[in-house]
Structures are given as C-alpha cells and as structure tokens.
Specification:
Elements lengths: L6 E6 L10 E7 L2 H28 L5 H30 L6 H15 L2 H4 L16 H4 L1 H23 L3 H22 L3
Antiparallel strand pairs: 1-2
Length: 193
C-alpha cells in the first residue's frame, strides 16, 4: 500500500480543548476519484466566484450591452489563461522537461474541464461591440465548425489523460501533441493574430 492508498484523518477541535485531545471526525481515502473531485470543486469554486461577482454587478444595476461585451471578453481571456496554465507543464514535457505521468493526468483533467466551458463563454456575441478581442467573427458565423473544434480539444484531452494513466511516455507525448494541435487548429480559424 502506498501513501496515497492510506486513509487520511481530518481532525477537528469542537471546543477549547487542547489539540492533543482532538478526535478524528472524517476519514478520507485519497484516490483518483478524490483528484477528480478536487478538479470538480475547483471548477465549482470558479463558477461560485462568478456568481458572487454577478450578484455584486446586479446590485449596481443592469449592465449595458457594452459592459456585457467587455465582461464576456474578460471571462473568455481568463478561461484561456487558466487553460494555458494547466497545459504549461505538459507543453514543457514536449520540449524535453522530465516526464511525469501523474502531472500529465492532473493537467489533462484540468484541460478537459476548461475545454468544456469554451462554448459557454462564447455564447455572448461580441462582434458588434468595440472591444479588445482576438476572437474572429467566424466563431458566431460558423458556429458548427467552432463547436467541432471544441469537441476535438475535449477528445484530445481525454486521450491524453488515458495515455498518461498507462505511464507510456511515447503515447502520452504523442497525445499531448494532439492537444496542442487541437488548440492550434482552432486558433488558426477563430483567433486573430
């Protein structure tokens, strides 16, 4: 049994009793499922933060369409920053950084989560607004192709996670290249230089 298989106890002090008298209240088994739960919680926390921000904005009154467009662009850019952060360690492995299958699995799961949010953050059509964005008009005029590219990225990220789960360096790096290729394909068609 390795250290990740051992149950970990969470201790809680319910009074002013000394820490030495704290009793375990929850036993947690750290597994792949726990890692996926953490990723889901990360996404939930991000959405929760967005909800809090939305409430704050709503209390100031309704946004103008221009403000909505600016917010849509900021949200999209933020999502892609997170996605770049997630793929960064994997991209480094493509450039001869030491291979670590566990890191690839974790980051592939994150890319899957962020890829699943892309269509949603592009629902607001910003073409008619004067906003600073690299999004091409074809995102909305050729939505079916844009959606297919998102699906291609999700599939590539799932394939990457599966390859990393087998700890096969060559297959994992090939799958990582496919994720990069999916990103590049979408950028070529839907992002201004």
């Amino acid at each position: 049994m390795n250290s990740t298989d051992a149950p970990q106890a969470v201790y809680c002090r319910l009074s002013h009793a000394p820490a030495s008298q704290a009793k375990p209240v929850v036993n947690i088994r750290v597994t792949e499922e726990t890692t996926m739960n953490r990723i889901a919680l990360m996404a939930l926390a991000a959405l929760g933060s967005a909800a809090v921000i939305s409430v704050a904005i709503a209390q100031r009154g309704p946004q103008t369409p221009e403000q909505q467009a600016e917010q849509a662009v900021k949200t999209r850019q933020g999502l892609f920053e997170v996605q770049g952060f997630a793929f960064g360690p994997v991209g480094a492995m493509l450039k001869d950084a030491p291979f670590d299958a566990a890191v690839v699995q974790k980051e592939a799961a994150r890319v899957q989560v962020t890829a699943g949010m892309i269509a949603e953050v592009f629902q607001f059509d910003t073409r008619k607004f004067q906003v600073s964005t690299k999004a091409k008009e074809t995102i909305w005029s050729n939505k079916s192709d844009f959606d297919k590219k998102i699906t291609d990225l999700q599939t590539a990220a799932a394939d990457l996670a599966a390859a990393a789960a087998k700890s096969d360096r060559a297959a994992t790096l090939k799958a990582a290249g496919a994720v990069g290729g999916a990103c590049k394909s979408c950028h070529e068609d839907f992002r201004d230089k």
